[in-house]
Amino acid sequence: MNALILSTVSGVIMMFSSFLLKNKASVRTLAHVLLLAVIVVNFLELKNVSLFHIDTKDMLVFDRFALLFSLIANVSTLAFFLLSSTDMERVGVNYSDYFALIFFVLSGVIIAVSFKSLLMLFLGIEILSIPLYILTGSDKRNLKSNEASLKYFLMGSFSTGLMLMGIALVYGATGTFQTGVPHLFAAGKVPVLMIAGMMLLLFAISFKVSAAPFHFWTPDVYDGAPTVFTSFMATVVKAAGFIAFMRLFNDAFGDIQPQWKLLVGIIAAVTLFIGNLTAVFQQSVKRMLAYSSISQAGFMMLAIYSLNSDAREGLILYGAAYCIATIGIFGMLAKMNDYTFEGFNGFAKQQPVIAATMVVFLLSLAGIPLTAGFLSKFYMLRATINAGNLWLALFAVLMAAVSVYYYFRLIQAMYFKDGNAGVVVTLTPGFKYTMIALAAITVILGIFPNLLISWLYF
Amino acid sequence: MIVLLLFLVPLIGGLLSFFLKNDKTVRVWSLLVSLVALFLSIASNTFIKSADQLNFSAPWMGNLGSSFSLSLDGLSQILTLLTAIAYPIILIATWRTEYKKPNNFFALMLLTQAGLMGVFLATDALLFYFFWELALIPVYFLCSGWGHERRIPVTFKFFIYTFTASVVMLVTILYLYFQTADHSFAIKSFYALKLSPGTQSWLFWLMFVAFAVKMPVFPFHTWQPDTYEQSPTAATMVLSGIMVKMGLYGLIRWVWPIFPSAVHAWGDVTMSMAVIGIIYASIIAIQQDDLKRLIAYSSIAHMGLMVMAVFSENTTAMNGVMMQMFNHGINIIGLWIVVELIERQFGTRKLSELGGIAQKAPGLTALLVVVALANVALPLTNGFVGEFLMFNGIWNSLSDYRIIFTVFAIIAIILSAVYTLNMIQKIFYGNTNAVTANAHDAFGNEKLILAFLVIVIVVLGVYPQPLLNLGSSFVDGLLKDVNVANLIVK
Questions:
Q1: Residue A363 and residue B137: Cβ atoms within 8 Å?
Q2: CB distance from B170 to chain A under 8 Å?
Q3: Scanning every residue of chain B, which has its alpha carbon at the shortest distance from the alpha carbon of A418?
Q4: Per-residue b or e along B150-186, where b marks 16 or more CB atoms closer than 10 Å to that residue's CB
Q5: How far apart, in Å, are the Cα atoms of A175 and each of A170, A195, B410?
Q6: What whole-number distance in Å separates Cα of residue B395 and Cα of residue B442?
Q7: In angstroms, rounded to a whole number, what is the distance separating the alpha carbons of residues B432 and B420?
Q8: Residue A433 in contact with partner chain B when CB distance is under 8 A
Q9: Nearest CA to A56 among A124, A134, A133?
């Protein structure tokens, strides 16, 4: 609760900060300080220290799962600020507004991952979506950015409509917005109203997390949006979507699993297939990452499919691993001259240290052992096999093997091909150290996942 | 404790190598590290043999049911010894080869060694998988970074092949994990599994493919000749001398005892695959003009024979495999050293462009001929002991087609004599030509290493008992378990 209030207030402060702070560096510092404060408050809440208490009438519940993920989202955002906040200057003139919008997204994230009432789910998803529509279009003079924004907005509003309809139907069937209330259906007789509502909600959230076949907006929007903001929306927001997804299906539809299990399994398989196979053919690293985000979403869908304790732990780890690795790669990409694979040719010769950290991130995304990415995939597979579906797990690992192809293309370009990869701005020592720290976290979590997961319980 | 050091020494040595700048320093350092590893390996075979030294276990990812457990038994001892001996040999033999960024090259070499040691020592399935990949990643970078002109697509193919197979293995391991009574990845729990023959069958194939790609067994071999050809020779030595043994090791350690009835049921199929591979690879080897490809195909043939022996399910054959795993490693590294010397001196590996080197380099010739004869498994060389035991075992196997298998395997021996002798004749005899006119003999360090290999070859050919003793206790234990299981199935 405290983190939610503070991040909303921070958003408002950032909005008005441009009246007082004319200097971009001071705007940036203010944003960093505010975010740090949010992180500290969030951490204290996780340790059961609350600054103030507000009765949410049971509409929001801040359990460890929600708080831990909020913390991961906030820390990832801090990493994103450290790597990319200077690049936001090149997007447009409204520098402080971008920070404000990001803080509003964070508020939406916190609501969406801690909802206990379907109304709050709706509010959370909307609060995190609307600032994203604006951020996508923030490069005002770029047609691609405008197109992406409009597309995102239209498709997004459509899915919002579906979600609202779904919530209404579920309300009709159960008479309450609360989730986690045991349903009193006679065995095997789930009302059609309930199933229809559940389906609509499934489709709407699948859209938000870009699971196939609701993924069509993703490549265009991620490609069209300014790269710095793609970094944010492809990571924190997507992972938050999955946490909300899991909460919804665990709390609201956990007792009617036979009704949706097969469908979710199919969505997971199709997402894996389309994401990976299409990513193979991309020439631009940015588009490749957009499709890779779809394929990673396919893996995260496995957690929704299995819904056991492995899945809960795994999704937290997956969120962290995926956010760190992708933010790191986007952080570098935003500074490159040329976004194609060839643009990275010879990169390792010029920036050996950063290239090495990029390798760690790519290995993590590909799921190679000793990285957090491997363990998070491992948890997903474990959850799936535990839920009794070996074939889905086998399909998933074969798709993971496909993903090696496109992630390693980037490694090949950086290390084994000659060329002169150009960067737009000089890389500061701060950037370098942040990259090293993120790579170190990736490796440490890959060996001792309990450092993160134990926070779910203690 | 000493088992932990066997893995840690190359790992830490390798990581430190990244930070050494001078070419000479990093060479000396990596040689030193590999010698320490060799010393540890010899020590673990001779004077440090208490159980608490040979076993190590520490909690690791506790709630996942995996622990960091390493252990040295007969099988592990043979293979860690091979790894430990091979490294100093490789480093000394390639002492004069120039590398760009030598610190990275030697660091990756040592990291590979750490991965290999880990694979041969791990007694926890998840840990085994970790090491399996840890050995693969540095080799990928070695081959892609320092190989020849077609290296990038070729090593990529190699990587995708092995990675795909190994993730399938991971799923199989996970499935087995959920079948164990105590939900643990420990090898003991896996061995205690009693799976139905039907389940065993398909799990066996999922697991077998991972190892078959690595060895490689026909038809999973297509990555191998290209990769051997395009890699820097030092990496090729590691790949063909030690890394292919990972596949055999996996078969013996992680497939046989867990799926005994499937091994029995599918023995004929896998043996047929192996025998096709042997004949096919031998015939192709005869056609080759490129030295590296010739040896690559000969390696497929030799590995195929070992796979046949593993599936013939008896003590003699298994003892032969134990011997041959070590000997094949020694012999093939010897052959690669000669290839390296020839390529460095003449800039070509084509048989058709070489000739008459014997007149200029008698020392090299004499040494190579012994290594080559060992490769053909002539009596009094180490190759003979292992192959003889394996043929004997295949002949006595339970398979209905054992006679056909043995006959074809023996034909392969004749074929191997054809291509090996042909190779010697074309490189060393005949008249010198423009390329080889100014040939000089091998340098002192190279002769020293080859002479050492020749001594090993002859000593083990005449007196193989020490090596046999290492393997036989392990084989007896293994076969006892598996035969019991066979009886239950029947």
A1: yes
A2: yes
A3: B145
A4: ebbebbbebbbbbbbbbbbbbbbbbbbbeebeeebbb
A5: 8, 14, 80
A6: 42
A7: 20
A8: no
A9: A124
pLDDT of B222 above 70:
yes
Q: Are B395 and B406 in contact (CB under 8 A)?
A: yes
Nearest to B164 among A370, A401, A448 (CB): A401
CB-nearest partner of A370 from B130, B151, B160: B130
Q: Do B130 and A390 touch (CB under 8 A)?
A: no
Amino acid in the structure at residue A398:
L
The gap between the terminal CA atoms of chain A, to the nearest Å, is 19
For A396-454, the pLDDT digits (tens) are: 999 999 999 999 999 988 888 888 877 888 888 889 999 999 999 999 998 888 888 88
Q: Taking the CA atoms of chain B, what radius of gyration do you get in angstroms?
A: 22
**B190 within 8 A of B180, measured Cβ to Cβ:** yes
Contact A368 B61 (CB under 8 A): no
- Residues linked to residue B71 through DSSP beta bridges, in sequence order: B55
Task: For residue B61, list chain A residues with Cβ-Cβ distance below 8 A.
Answer: 448-450
- From CA A246, how far away is CA A259, in angstroms rounded? 16
C-alpha A447/C-alpha A273 separation (Å) is: 29
C-alpha span between A411 and A357 (Å, rounded): 11
- How is chain A split into domains, by residue range? 2-456
State which residue of chain B sits closest to A367, comparing Cα positions. B167
Pick among B163, B179, B195 to test the A interface (most A CBs inside 10 A): B163
Tell me the pLDDT tens digit for each residue of B299-322. 888 898 899 888 888 888 888 888
Write down the ipTM of this complex. Answer: 0.88
Q: Per-domain residue ranges for chain B?
A: 274-490
A385/B171 Cβ within 8 A? yes
**Smallest Cα distance from A304 to chain B, Å:** 19
Residues of B in contact with A360 (CB under 8 A): none
Q: How far is CA A258 from the centre of its chain?
A: 28
What does the pLDDT look like over B74-129, one tens digit per residue? 888 889 989 999 999 888 888 878 888 888 889 999 999 999 999 999 989 999 99
Q: Is B55 helix (H, G, I), strand (E, B) or coil?
A: strand
Phi, psi dihedral angles at A178 (to 5 degrees): -65, 140
Residue A381 tokens read as: 């597979």
CB pairs under 8 A between A and B: 68
DSSP letter at B58 equals E
Chain B residues 102-141 with CB within 8 Å of chain A: 129-130, 133-134, 137, 141
**CB pair distance less than 8 Å for A369 and B130:** yes
Q: Phi/psi zone of residue A178: left (φ > 0), alpha (ψ -120 to 50 degrees), beta? A: beta
Q: Is B167 on the interface with A (CB under 8 A)?
A: yes
Contact of A450 with chain B, judged by CB distance below 8 Å, is answered with yes
Partner-chain contact A404 B170, CB within 8 Å: no
Runs of H (alpha helix) within A281-389: 285-306, 309-333, 347-350, 352-366, 372-386
- Dihedral of CA atoms A265, A267, A271, A272 in degrees, nearest 10, equals 10
CA nearest to A80, candidates A318, A375, A332, A373 = A332
Helices (H) and strands (E) in chain B, counts: 21, 2
Query: How far is residue A230's CA from residue B349's CA, in Å, rounded to a whole number?
Result: 51
* CA A210/CA A220 separation, integer angstroms: 12
Contact B134 A370 (CB under 8 A): yes
* Chain A: closest CA distance from residue B386 (Å): 36
Radius of gyration of chain A (CA): 21
Cis peptide bond upstream of A213, omega within 30:
yes
Q: B434 with B346: CB under 8 angstroms?
A: no
Q: Which of B11, B146, B167 to mutate to test the interface with A (most CBs of A within 10 A)?
A: B167
